[in-house]
Amino acid sequence: MINKHLSIFLVKAVFLSSFSIGKCDQPCSARDVGIEGRSIVCVCNAAYCDTITRDEPAWNTYVAYTSTRDGKRFEKSTGPIRFLTNAKARNYGRSEKTQTRFANEASYRINSNTRYQKVEGFGGSVTDAASINWRKLSDSTQRHFINSYFGKEGIEYNMIRVPIGGADFSTHPYTYNESPWNDKTLSNYSLSAEDYFYKSVDVQQINDKFPEKKGGLKELYEKGPRNAFFLVKFWADLNTNNLDDPGAFYGVTSVYESNENMTITCSTKVCSFGKQVVEKVETEYARFEGGRFVYRIQRSPMCEYMVNFIHKLKHLPEKYMMNSVLENFTILQVVSNRDTQETLLCAAFVFEVSNSEHGAQHHIYRLVKD
């Protein structure tokens, strides 16, 4: 990363050819799969998988990640950066002493005043076919797989595309509205078996992010009903100035629906490093609207802890710092029947900062136990 204050002078940065390897990562276990003799893949199994961590470059240095046709795969190296003025850059490399070394160097002109594009993130497609193959792996290999794509020791995907219905390599063709034919109103729109069995998250993978004592996610899930449990990955939008207004109101509005008339209790637990920090319990009565019973908890004010947390989070200087904090911050929301204590809905929230120009976003996954 180059300090943007230097870029206003339109200096040339010369990346010297001498370099050193960055902090130790697990190297690629290479295998040539024989496509024209130049296709190298990294082999992962239950016992071993390559890793790649992101290093913050020191001042006047760079960090490079290199993949090549010959077999390098995210090979990390570091080296110094030499800053030259335009006049010096034109003369640099003309003498016999520097010509050889300059031939192995790269020059870049940096101008941070012009933005050419905005990158929201990188990711891939999660299809039923991919999920079926993933489920065939051992538990250890599954963890290596997830870490390689989404973990801090992997390529850190932060976006997922999920197809609506079958995909190219599905075991059979299907849609979410098979019948009636030409149903423009999608009256029979429903998920398929693949969605329930393969597009889900194992609850055991997130148990440690929530309290383990009485009323924690693990105990609640064992008690059931298991079809009431979901994971919500939420990308928070902190790009609003309203949070800094002296009279700003921090609140949450929740709406639930049911076919039965009952009184519900909504418990919201804020957790840090898997430990409960604060809990709010609210009770709501049903209103019959449009043939169903509706429960609205309107503008429920946030507690002082949450307000202070959001303020401190918003004023961190870098998004990676915000995400580092949010990695250990979770919310467990449980809606239950006040009279019978039956769990009606349990939503486990995990968070990250949104990079999208569209603001806050979320994905919902069903929690299962293999």
TrEMBL record:
<dbReference type="GO" id="GO:0005634">
    <property type="term" value="C:nucleus"/>
</dbReference>
<dbReference type="GO" id="GO:0000981">
    <property type="term" value="F:DNA-binding transcription factor activity, RNA polymerase II-specific"/>
</dbReference>
<protein>
    <recommendedName>
        <fullName>YAP binding domain-containing protein</fullName>
    </recommendedName>
</protein>
<keyword id="KW-0539">Nucleus</keyword>
<dbReference type="GO" id="GO:0005667">
    <property type="term" value="C:transcription regulator complex"/>
</dbReference>
<feature type="signal peptide">
    <location>
        <begin position="1"/>
        <end position="24"/>
    </location>
</feature>
<feature type="domain" description="YAP binding">
    <location>
        <begin position="198"/>
        <end position="367"/>
    </location>
</feature>
<dbReference type="InterPro" id="IPR050937">
    <property type="entry name" value="TEC1_TEAD_TF"/>
</dbReference>
<dbReference type="InterPro" id="IPR017853">
    <property type="entry name" value="GH"/>
</dbReference>
<keyword id="KW-0804">Transcription</keyword>
<dbReference type="GO" id="GO:0000978">
    <property type="term" value="F:RNA polymerase II cis-regulatory region sequence-specific DNA binding"/>
</dbReference>
<dbReference type="InterPro" id="IPR041086">
    <property type="entry name" value="YBD"/>
</dbReference>
<dbReference type="Pfam" id="PF17725">
    <property type="entry name" value="YBD"/>
</dbReference>
<keyword id="KW-0805">Transcription regulation</keyword>
<keyword id="KW-0732">Signal</keyword>
<dbReference type="GO" id="GO:0035329">
    <property type="term" value="P:hippo signaling"/>
</dbReference>
<keyword id="KW-0238">DNA-binding</keyword>
<dbReference type="InterPro" id="IPR013780">
    <property type="entry name" value="Glyco_hydro_b"/>
</dbReference>
<dbReference type="GO" id="GO:0048568">
    <property type="term" value="P:embryonic organ development"/>
</dbReference>
